[in-house]
Amino acid sequence: NDYKIPVNTIVSYNEKQNRRLKRVASLKEKLAKALKNDEISIMIQPRLNVTTGKISGGELLMRWNNSTVGPVSPVEFIPISEKDDQIFYLTHYLMKESLKLGDIFAPEAGNDRPFSISVNISPSIIHAEKLHDLIQYTEKAGPDFTYEFELTEGVFLGVDERVADELKLLQSRGIAASVDDFGTGYSNLEYLQDLNINVLKIDKKFIDGIPGRGKQQHLVRAVIQMAHALNLLTVAEGVETPEQFLWLQKEGIDEIQGFVFSKPIELVALQDFYDHHNKNRWAFLEK
Ligand code: C2E
Ligand code: MG
Ligand code: MG
Ligand code: MG
């Protein structure tokens, strides 16, 4: 009975682990210079009001393109930036860039105005109490724009006083608070009743299975109903097909964000996208 230790497996696992650590270290070093080297850019993904067919706002999403490494996904570089102060500098830059929308985009009065700009706020920003630094930018935005700050469920793990205070600060400045990637964290639901939250963004994971998979349909339907009972606006993330859209519309979702309507686009492309959309609001369903 010759039992052999799978040596190769162990070696290759260590090598993989090693390569990973090296990449993270190298990215961390390059990320520290990314802003100075002009490697960071900001995209916007428009959001649609399902009832009116009008554009309600858009989410700002960060992009990093390094000359030697190439494009790096935010899924990879945001967690690295959260390990130190980098995420503060990056989010400052994003807020500063968001003010450019005032020059390059003008939503029509009585139409889709004000336009809501969504910003992803890392938990570390809340925990380091750096939110007030970012709020100053929202005061410089003109009357055409409002802001929504997206927080992931992790922020609400064990609701503490600080988080409640930060949320009150947002409300007092007219900034909406949303729960991003709802349903993927591990928090209990207590925060939904105790804290000032305005918007629930249902994660793509749940949207992927509809229509069709019974359990996911029940879940999404129940989440929409619960959110509405709590006076929260509901947004479905990652809607890719007309079938998903129509099902969500039937179930009373308020807004959608996803490739079925638009991928993230350059800030300078927003006006054209907006004008084109307003010529035929439901054209995207006919593709
Ligand atoms: P998120 O906040 O949940 O953003 C939505 C992500 O889903 C974006 O990916 C978007 O491009 C993608 N998406 C939207 N609709 C669809 C769809 O229909 N199909 C598919 N397959 N994907 C869709 P992205 O831009 O790669 O960002 C990934 C994550 O990185 C974000 O998830 C967010 O957690 C983080 N992130 C991006 N920018 C920032 C930022 O400025 N600050 C912070 N803290 N995090 C950011
Ligand atoms: Mg988000
Ligand atoms: Mg999200
Ligand atoms: Mg998500």
Tell me about this structure.
The chain is an alpha/beta fold and 287 residues long. It contains twelve helices and ten strands. The chain has an eight-stranded mixed β-barrel, surrounded by four helices. The longest helix has 28 residues. It is globular, with a radius of gyration of 21 Å. The protein starts with 6 loop residues before the first helix and ends in an 8-residue tail after the last helix.
Bound molecules: ligand C2E, magnesium ion
- The helix/strand class is alpha/beta
**Average pLDDT value?**
93
Any idea what the shape is?
A: globular
Measure the end-to-end span: 63 Å
Residue share in helix: 40-55%
> How much strand?
15-25%
Query: Could you tell me the number of beta strands?
Result: 10
Query: Biggest sheet, in brief?
Result: 8 strands, mixed, barrel
Radius of gyration: 21 Å
- State the low-pLDDT regions, or none: none
Number of helices: 12
H and E order = HEEEHHHEHHEHEHEHHEHEEH
Biggest sheet strand order reads 1-2-4-5-6-7-8-9
